[in-house]
Amino acid sequence: MKEEGIERLVRPHLRSFQAYEPVDPPEVLAARAGIPPERVIKLDGNENPYGPSPRVLEALARLTGYNIYPDPFQRRVRQALATYAGVSPDQVIAGAGSDELIDLLLRLFLEPGDQVVDLSPTFGMYAFSTRVNGGQVVTVERDAAWEVDPVAVRRALTPRTKVVFVANPNNPTGNVTPQSVIEGLLEMGLVVVVDETYHEFSSFTVVPLLTKHENLVVLRTLSKWAGLAGLRIGYGIMAPQLAKLMMGVKAPYNINVAAEQAVLATLEDRDLLLRRVKAIVEERERLAAMLRRIPGLTVYSSRGNFLLVRLPQGKARQAQAGLAERGIFVRYFDAPRVADCLRISVGLPQHTEVVVKALAEIVKVS
Ligand SMILES: Cc1ncc(COP(=O)(O)O)c(C=O)c1O
User: Fold this and answer.
1) Atom of ligand 1 nearest to the CA of 234
2) Topology of domain 6-51+271-365, per CATH?
3) pLDDT at position 2
4) Which residue lies with its CA nearest to atom 16 of ligand 1?
5) How does residue 1 score in pLDDT terms, banded at 50, 70 and 90?
6) Which residues have C-beta atoms less than 6 Å from ligand 1?
7) Of the CATH numbers 3.30.70.260, 3.20.20.80, 3.40.1620.10, 3.40.640.10, which one belongs to the domain with range 54-269?
8) Do residues 100 and 234 make contact, with C-beta atoms less than 8 angstroms apart?
9) Do residues 141 and 336 lie in contact, with contact meaning Cβ atoms separated by under 8 Å?
10) At residue 3, does pLDDT exceed 90?
11) Ligand 1 atom 12 nearest Cα
């Protein structure tokens, strides 16, 4: 579009914006691979292969009242999530996925030009939402073992640095940043957002630190352990005064009535869902062991529901395409430090067999 077109009215930093690269739904993947959707093995989105709790399906089948707006104060949802997380409801805010909460936090904290520390390689939405909100991304590389280097973070700080995001476990690398390092970041006086999207798989949390640190925010989601990625429901845990500010800037009806019911039904069926989490963790270790037997592959140990796998130099993109031709979809990132890697979500046991066999064939001939 020409400068004199509608573009001239768009905020300058958004005129030639680089979109986030999302994962496609199964029917699109199937059409691309020329196979029926039921043959798609979808290991690219860290989704839950077991789906949601059967109680969610029952609750949604019974649900009426689609013509009425949901509760803008999320009363029942906040209460249920707070009980689950062991905090008080005024510390909780629910969002349409943790993605929405990342955006809301940045809306709240960033003036144009303010800086956000991105502990690279990490989840792409932190940098994306920072840029959308007119902030500047300051990249601090993780070390060779993907650990966060607090000295490097401190060196990167300027008077304009406001927020640091720590995905814990980190996506795509799978490792956990220890509590001592997070405490070090909290001492720096920034807003420290610890993204515990994969909490149930890692059994690690910094929620107890909330009593001492008003600059700590913990993000969680029901997308992964509870199999609700499609309903978009995540939550943040933080100091009550911050939760109140967040509630004040969100869209009033951000949690739809189906998601509301799904949260309540999920939390009533947590034992079943946590047994599935355990099965996924065991499957992750089985997948890792099988992949490690393929010559040329390095498998990083992971506390999430996915594995980062390093291939021989220059082979990863080609391997992703080779897997896709066989109906197996995994994630490839072209960021330099992971350009030779694939991220493979843990699926059902039969998916493990198929992906290992295919990858072994691909790596052998390439
Ligand atoms: C680290 C991390 N944070 C947040 C999200 C987004 O989760 P949600 O589905 O709750 O928006 C993801 C999704 O993959 C993730 O890996």
Assistant:
1) 10
2) Aspartate Aminotransferase, domain 1 (3.90.1150)
3) 54
4) 171
5) very low
6) 46, 97-99, 123, 167, 171, 195, 197, 221, 223, 229, 234
7) 3.40.640.10
8) yes
9) no
10) no
11) 197
